[in-house]
Amino acid sequence: MEFWILPACRITVMVMLISSTVQGVADRTQSAYFLPEFALSPQGSFLEDTTEEQYLTYRYDDQSSRTTRSDEDRDTGWDAWGAWSDCSRTCGGGASYSLRRCLNGGNCEGRNIRYRTCSNTDCPPESGDFRAQQCSAHNDIKYHGQTYEWIPVTSDPVSPCALRCQAQARSLVVELAPKVLDGTRCKADSLDMCINGVCQEVGCDRQLGSKAKEDNCGMCAGDSSTCRLVRGQGLPHLSPEEPVKTVFEVPMGSRGLRITAKGPDVIVIEAHAPNNRREEIVFSSPGSHSVANNTVEYQRGAERQTFRCPGPLYANFSIKVKYAGPKDTVMQFMFYQPIRYQWRETDFFPCSVTCGGGYQLNSADCIDIRSNKTVGEQYCHSYPENNKPKPKLKECNMDPCLESDGFKEVMPYDHFQPLPRWEQNPWTSCSVSCGGGTQERSVMCVEEDVHGQVSHVEEWKCTHSPQPISKQDCNTFVCPKWMAMEWSQCTVTCGPGLRYRVVLCVDHRGQHTGGCDPHHKPHIKEDCLVPVACHKPQENQPVEAKLPWLKQAQGLEETKVALEDPTFIPGPWTACSVSCGLGIQRRLVKCKVLLSFTQTEVELPIEECDEEKPPSQRACDSGPCSESPDSLTWPLGSQEIPEQHGYDWEYMGFTACSASCAAGKQMAFVRCVSTSGREIVDDALCSSSRAPLSSFRICNPQPCPARWEVSVWNPCSGSCGVGLQTRSVSCVRPVAGNRTEPASSIDCVESRPPEIQACNQVACPPAWVTESWQQCSHSCGRGSQWRKVYCKQRLATGSYRRLRDEECPGNKPAAHRTCFNSDCLLPRLEGGEWSKCSVTCGKGIQRREPVCRRQTASGQLVTLDRSACGGLSLPPLVRSCRMSPCSRHRYSKKRCPQVMGLNRIYIQTRQEKRLTFTVGGRAYLLPKTSITVKCPVRHFPKAQIRWENNGNELKSSKRLSITKSGALRIYNLDAGDIGVYRCWANQDSEKFVLKLIGHNNRLLEHPDGLEKDDGFHSYLNKEGVKCHEQKGSAKKTSKSDLGWMQKNEFYRDDNGQPKDTLALGKHSAAFVLEPAQFEELVRNITQLAESGDVTDEMASLLISKIMEDLAITEHGTANKELSTTVDNYSNKTPNSSTPSLGKGIKKGSRAKIVRQKLHGNAMSFQRDLRIHVGRTAYLTNATHSLTLMCPTRGSPHPTLSWSKDGAPLQNSERISWDGSGELHLSSPDLRDVGVYGCTASNDFGADSERSHVLMAESPKIAVSRRNTSDLNSRSVKVVVGGSVHVRVGANVTLECPVKGVPQPTVSWQRKEGPLTTSASTLLNGSLLLRNVTLQDSGIYSCVAANDIGKSVALSLLRVAEGSAGESEHQSLNEMNRKRVLMASPIGTSITVKPGDILRIGCPVVPSHRKPITWSYQNKTLKQSPGRSYRILVGGRVLEMNTLGGKFDGRYECQTQTGNQQLTAWVHVLSQDFDWRLGSWSTCSASCGNRGAQVRKVRCVTTDGKEMPPSDCHRLPKPISQPQPCNLLDCPPSWVSTVWSRCSSACGRGFKERRVSCQQVEASGSVRVLPSAACDGTPRPKDRDACSSQACVEWITGSWGKCTGRCLGPALATQSRTVSCHHFTNSTSKTCDAKERPPTTRNCSSELCDVHWKVLPWRTCTAACGSGFQSRRVECVHRQKKKTLPDQQCAWQPRPVTWQHCNITYCGSECQDRTHYCPVVKRLRLCQVDLYRQRCCQTCSQDTSTT
User: Which of 62, 224, 320, 1459 has the fewest CB atoms below 10 angstroms from its CB?
Assistant: First the structure.
């Protein structure tokens, strides 16, 4: 390698000395130095010189620059790393190294050298290329006897770090050095650099080994958000007349410009630089071209021209085309255009306060990135990609303010100024009463000052917290609808008649109500025809008038109620006008409307009701009148007409049948005949009054042939585009009575008519189309959401066409919005760690405890008290687990089946379709309810469960079925389903009693009187043997205890929630009660009736009937089981089973547990507690032992077993039991809490009983410390503990949430006296105060007590008159009147209103006893006549009278404190002004429900004169609360929607909108009226002409083959054509480039499954000197093992194919090889071997001279 200095340029040489004895001397001229490669060789000597992964082994180094060794270095034997060396380059990116030495003899693992980049600033342009400098250093060195001018070879994929140079103007390429200098770029277009001959990866951040890459916008490690991709296609139509056209323009700063042109025309690029310099270049020859300091690569093929410019562009490019032939040139282009105007956040503004806690915000400015200057915000808003950052808010100056004196009383809010917050008003009423509406509220940003006054501020000040929603859905339940019952039978047995049905209006709860549209009410009667000929005279009365059908039809008419729309309300019918025969009934029909805000009905004029008016009279039949001899025989005559002698009327036959099928008619005709000869004569000879009535008969009653019947077409599904119309097509067969009956499609022989057809096949106007919002960018807290918004037009063909945004009407919907997920910041219940599986084999359960957690704003989870998550649903606390299979069969005879019953009482209060229960309880249900009764079992297959009803085994039928899981389903209950149902699992069973409640609220009886259970007779399991196991205490334990239900998997669903535990309360389908809770139901039945859960009649009847039924049931049980005594209906029925006794079985008696009468719970503070099983035991601190007694009897003597929470108990040191049946627990504590079961069993049966053992706890009230002030709401609900401030007439509910064991009783007291009549205690212990008055103000206390203790919580209730602003103002004035102002040694001032009490305190301690002297205006008070004052608190407080004289001035107190004189003073100013509320402002609306008015706050003097507001600025200003006004119905007006898109996407079309007459009512709802109501005003147009010029669209071709360049293993690309076409099918250039479909995509290709195959190195070409060796590197297919061209593997780096070898000095004559040797000698570089070899003669002279 030759050392050189470029003489033509200024080059500064910076040399790093290698030897410690040689110092580098650098010339300080303005020439640029570069360091040769060995400049990075560390000091000292080396064992070997290697490349790539082998590094130098260092022997000697300077110890002065060592850093401290780390523990890791001590463990591995390395010394600490040395200091970093100087950089190898001064600019353009160099390298620096650091060394360490091995301290254990060279056996250290790892490297002793490390590198880093340095000097990463760009070099000046005149310094030239670094690799070119190294090549030119060899210009004076002869190569094969000749010198050359060398230029670098920049692209060498094999050896990028070798110095390969090419002789200028020659094809000679030579490797002049095996390694370039450190810091040389591996490639000209890459940042990767060569270090020690190895190409090291360098990221765009100029760091070694970094993977950071520039994005498409040129930003290092960016996300391409600062630029946009522009791509498109152009088709300029050139001609000799128009030879030049500009196709498109590329703005300055763009990157990645690529242009492809197909055609003969010439491409021209015109550049416009910022300095107004214009440059134009015409491309004719391929290669690199310079345009405005940018390099453009131009390639030309047979038919294609390609331009590439990486950018960034330093000028604006205009791409032009020059005419070169008749054939058009198609251009495709793409580039990344920078977003010129971008948001940049500013620094934070100054703090809002100097101390005491304030806030400061920042903002964002719009920056022009070209000039780096601030511009108007509209520039940034023009880019949809730009989102202005939200202002950030942070606290500042949190240090407390320094007070002026130490005795000033500082209010709590003076210590910290609260941040602005969101405040919302109450919700408006719902826009609709049903069917889903919306309601709104106003949300504003408010700020509270140091005086506690709240004011409205800008919304950006509240951006630190999420903005509450201002609109929500409401009344989402479905509207009432008509429900038609079954048709009655026809009213006649032959011929035509009528049939009727009941039609009811039913709401979403299934209850009969009003509100259905009368226009859509189904008809209640219709004609019917009985196809039987009638053989009796025609009756005179119409069928409608015949009883009882007429009365039934009249009785079925529904009572109508007034609605919010005018409706006809008919009154009751009057009595029939006659006492017998046919008469008339009349009634009044009025037009009425319901006023929603007053809930009153108002009568309107008849013309206000648009519907058809119901009839006001009808015929009636009072029954036949008694016949008399004088009664007439012919109904049509009023008197008898004499008979014409000799002639009479006679039936002559029937006419032809009117129909050939489906019951036609034949009319009978009569003629006048002579009575003698029966000859037909003229009809005039017969008396017309005696002519027979016209009659007919049915003929051809057989059905007609089937035919197709079609309905009318439904409305078109779309108003434009391609809509669809449907209709029903059915095959019917006409039958009698002009009716049809369905027939099979096969019977209709004609072709089937179409059921669907296209409609409205016209193009729709353009419209905005939005996709769904993406997920929020942050799952917690504030984030952002995006969605795609397009302008599209649906064509007449049904397809969609994309249009430009400006072609759609109206504003473009937002594509970005902020989102906020606050659920993560709220407390939530989560499950803790799962416990171990409950079994060691087979399937068991795992449990966990709920944990209340909350996520902080920083993302951390903190654990809270369980009370913070009150009211939240529990997570799954139980799950199944499966261990290894058990060795024995699951259902062996050693484990007896158990039915896990649930003792509950169910009372259904409203109709429901279906309910679900668990066996073991009683249910009182309504008819026609479908039920499911579950039978949870243990140790028994559910498929073998059997059911009985009243002793008879049940089988699946049409109305009854038994599921695979053993549950019983009964559909549409009726009286036949009443009875006792029993579920059997082998010999164990449980029963379920089912009763029905009739329409009169009385219990129904079984039609056959079957309501008994025939006792026990077990079913055998599959093994056919009886089970004689001692049952665990889990058998037959009551499931009433919630803790037990949480622990027992049989009573939890898949989510871990308890099953069949419907809450007792309003809106439940049934009450679910424990037996003991039934007494509570009886006590509170009055409140239940008041709340509307049950009616008064139903309440009284249910109590009496159910108690009677329960008493009968319990009495029967007592008679059946003589050994069991039941105290009352609330006692638990013993859980027992008795096998059937047959022949051959030994006589004996089954096992029974002797139960004691229950007299309350075993609450005792005894040291040793003994109770009988079946009672609840409460453990206290005084309990040292607990004994559960379980006496039994039976023959043979029963064996006992105990369990806890369903698991068998084992004897231990603390828990034991003996044969007497007593369970002993010593030192019981919290771990012993649970359900204990005792099971007694012998050969004749088993019995079990349980006891709850609970830890007694004193009552604890969850007190709230929050003060509530709500002077606007009608109802206020708060938790006891704080103060409550409400207005007169409000309803206040004070909740008292309490916990304790036993359950505490809650009572309420009032400190001022007994509770008023408006106070009532609710079931949950809350206190309800209705319509509070001023007398209800006071202190209310909630007292919760049980046997352990009691707890009391207080709340102060204040009732105020007037608005909120007035009340707060009065409260503030009252506070000001009573406060004591402390004087200060440095003085203070106060403004006092005349009439207020002025009290001034002297700042001394309460124990101060020395005399205090008060003075006024520097005179003692005694010397100031006319002053009315009092000295209080031993002289420490001065009270002045502020009425009737001057009181303002300086007040001073003096006293002696210790050895010092204390003087404190205060200056009192007279307040001559005050804020007052003026008159109400004008209403903001003239009608509707949005009108509001406020009262102006005025600054006035004491005599009422108004002053400027500045005179009162020091005084707290009251808030004027708005009030609604002008709550009136608005007059009808025309309302129109926005125009639709133009019907034609290209050319002229039309646009439409809906115009309707609407009226805004006082309630806020909008009512649509008939058009006639708005006739007084001109109606807006609903259709107008429009035109559109968007006639282009992108046309894509099919994807080509997957033969593009390889991108990775088995990954290639494929492409397709994309062109812009006019609707005339000609190409165009006006398509939106942003909407251009992609032309390439990735695809899977087997051709790319290749890799580089490397062969061994060949022998070195020289034994000494500088030789090289090579090896073969081939591109090979992985599967086929076939050698492929190298370009197939170009996607991965190619291994090197040759390297230098044997670089040793061969020895020769000593002579200089470069003319730079004098410089080497002058710089004393002869110590270096390489320089000494090149300058042997000069260096020898140097040695000899020295």
Answer: 1459
Between CA 1412 and CA 1432 the distance in angstroms is: 11
Encode pLDDT of 1196-1219 as tens digits: 888 888 898 888 888 888 888 876
Read off the amino acid at residue 1274: R
Q: Shortest CA distance to 98 belongs to which of 79, 86, 115? A: 115
Q: Which burial class, exposed, middle or buried, applies to 677 when counting CB atoms under 10 A from its CB (0-12, 13-18, 19+)?
A: exposed
Tally helices (H) and strands (E) across the chain: 12, 118
The amino acid present at 739, given as its one-letter code, is R
Question: Which among 86-95, 97-106, 1337-1346 has the top mean pLDDT?
Answer: 1337-1346
Structure tokens at 194: 């060569």
Per residue in 1717-1733, pLDDT (tens digit) is 887 777 777 877 777 77
Secondary structure of 1621-1677 as H, E, C letters: EECCCCECCCCCHHHCCCCEEEEECHHHCEEEEECCCCCCCCCCEEEEEECCEEEEE
Question: Residue 169 and residue 167: Cα distance in Å, rounded?
Answer: 6
pLDDT in tens, 694-705: 777 778 877 788
Residue 474 tokens, joined: 């409401």
Question: Helix (H, G, I), strand (E, B), or coil: what is residue 623?
Answer: coil
Least trusted range by pLDDT, from 89-103, 1224-1238, 1631-1645, 1689-1703: 1689-1703
Greater model confidence, 737 or 794 = 794
Cβ-proximal residues to 685 (8 Å cutoff; 6+ apart), any chain? 644, 646, 647, 672
984: its two tokens = 């059997």
**What six digits make up the tokens of 253?**
């700063």
* 3 state SS of 136: helix
**How much helix, strand and coil, in percent to the nearest 5, is found in the chain?**
10, 35, 55
Strands 1135-1137 and 1215-1217 turn out to be unpaired
What is the per-residue burial (b if ≥16 Cβ within 10 Å, else e) of 221-234? Answer: ebeeebbbebbbbb
What three-state secondary structure class fits 1574? helix
- CA–CA gap between residue 345 and residue 340 (Å, rounded): 16
Query: Which tokens go with 520?
Result: 């859509």
Positive or negative, the Cα torsion across 118, 121, 122, 124? negative
**Per-residue pLDDT, 411:** 33
Residue % of the chain over a pLDDT of 90 = 5
Q: What CA–CA distance (Å, rounded) separates 143 from 140?
A: 9
Q: Among residues 196, 176, 201, 163, which one has the least CA distance to residue 41? A: 196
pLDDT reported for residue 943: 84
Q: Which amino acid is at 22?
A: V
pLDDT higher than threshold 70 for residue 1561: yes
Q: Is the dihedral of CA 570, 576, 582, 586 positive or negative?
A: negative
Task: Please check the confidence at residue 543 and state whether its pLDDT lies above 50.
Answer: no
Q: State mean pLDDT over 28-52.
A: 33
Q: Is 1572 helix (H, G, I), strand (E, B) or coil?
A: helix
CB-based contact 1551:1543 (threshold 8 Å): yes
Beta bridge partners of 1673: 1654
Q: What is the distance between the terminal CA atoms of the chain, rounded to a whole angstrom? A: 26
The DSSP annotation for 575-615 comes to PPSSSSSEEEEE--EEEEEEETTTTEEEEE-GGG--SPPPP
The CA distance from 451 to 454, in Å, is 9
Does residue 1362 register a pLDDT over 80? no
Type of residue found at 1017: H
Q: Where are the beta strands (DSSP E) in 1148-1290?
A: 1149-1153, 1168-1172, 1177-1179, 1185-1189, 1192-1195, 1199-1204, 1207-1208, 1215-1217, 1222-1226, 1234-1242, 1245-1255, 1257-1261, 1268-1270, 1275-1279, 1283-1287
Kindly tell me if the per-residue pLDDT of 635 is higher than 70: no
Longest dimension (CA), the chain: 183
